[in-house]
């Protein structure tokens, strides 16, 4: 009993001696915990909001075929494009914003192929670059690189296209895009008239991915060059 009393007295003396330090430490821990709770809450809230806005915009765009009036259809379409841009601006690092960038990049790329509008191409590259830089998910990073590489091909900026395809092949094989990346690398080397290197990439598709969709394309290319 006496030992317990002595321990209690020592504890009280310790608390009295370091009371201010203990109060400060407890306050700091409480502030950190509260801040962490708010961070998790707002992050989750932003993810949900961006996902809802993205899904709503995409759903509307996909169902515009049912709007028979062309003027109204174009207005609805532009409204949803604006909404996707708002997702990117207001919730830049959320998954909804990453997916919005990928969709907008595709739209701008298609606009360029129809109109040859250089501003559309610049926007497409910007969207894909933003998706790559912001995303922490390898699957979306790979998609962004593939989209950007396609844009560089259209611009005849073959060196940059090759770099993006190569990065997909070297860093994101697990995402299932390796054969596509190899085809892109082969195509880029063709555009640079490096035929032997190009054939090597096509043959690698045949050896590493013989059952893939791209194997038949690669086989045709190898046959074409070796038949000459």
Task: Describe what this molecule looks like in 3D.
The chain has 228 residues and is mostly helical. The protein has a single domain, classed as Serine Threonine Protein Phosphatase 5, Tetratricopeptide repeat. Helices cover 84% and strands 0% of the residues. The chain is built from 10 helices and no strands. The protein has helices at residues 2-17, 19-62, 70-90, 95-115, 118-134, 138-154, 158-171, 178-191, 195-208, 213-226. The longest helix is centred in the N-terminal third of the chain and has 44 residues, at 19-62. The protein is globular and about 70 Å long.
Provide key terms for this protein.
single chain, 228 residues, mainly alpha, Serine Threonine Protein Phosphatase 5, Tetratricopeptide repeat
What is the residue-mean pLDDT, rounded to a whole number? 85
Are there runs of 5+ residues with pLDDT below 50, and where? 33-42
CATH uppermost class: Mainly Alpha
- What fraction of the residues are assigned to beta strands by DSSP? under 5%
Helix content bin: over 70%
Distance between the termini: 101 Å
SS class: mainly alpha
Total of helices: 10
| Counted beta strands | 0
Radius of gyration: 28 Å
Name of the CATH architecture: Alpha Horseshoe
N-to-C SSE string, H for helix and E for strand: HHHHHHHHHH
Shape designation: globular
CATH topology: Serine Threonine Protein Phosphatase 5, Tetratricopeptide repeat
> What does the main sheet amount to?
none
| Total domains | 1
């Amino acid at each position: 009993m006496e030992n317990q009393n002595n321990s209690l007295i020592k504890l009280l003396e310790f608390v009295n001696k370091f009371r201010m330090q203990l109060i400060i430490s407890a306050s700091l821990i409480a502030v950190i915990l509260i801040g962490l709770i708010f961070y998790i809450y707002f992050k989750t809230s932003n993810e949900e909001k961006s996902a809802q806005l993205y899904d709503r915009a995409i759903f509307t765009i996909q169902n515009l075929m049912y709007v028979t009036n062309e003027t109204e259809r174009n207005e609805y379409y532009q409204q949803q494009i604006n909404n996707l841009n708002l997702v990117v601006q207001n919730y830049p690092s959320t998954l909804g914003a990453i997916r919005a960038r990928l969709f907008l990049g595709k739209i701008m790329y298609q606009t360029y192929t129809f109109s040859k509008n250089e501003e559309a191409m610049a926007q497409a590259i910007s969207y894909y670059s933003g998706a790559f830089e912001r995303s922490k998910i390898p699957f979306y990073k790979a998609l962004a690189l593939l989209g950007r590489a396609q844009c560089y091909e259209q611009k005849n900026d073959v060196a940059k296209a090759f770099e993006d395809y190569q990065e997909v092949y070297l860093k994101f094989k697990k995402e299932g895009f390796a054969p596509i990346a190899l085809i892109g690398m082969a195509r880029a080397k063709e555009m640079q008239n490096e035929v032997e290197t190009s054939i090597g990439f096509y043959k690698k598709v045949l050896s590493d991915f013989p059952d893939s969709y791209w194997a038949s394309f690669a086989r045709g290319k190898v046959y074409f060059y070796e038949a000459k």
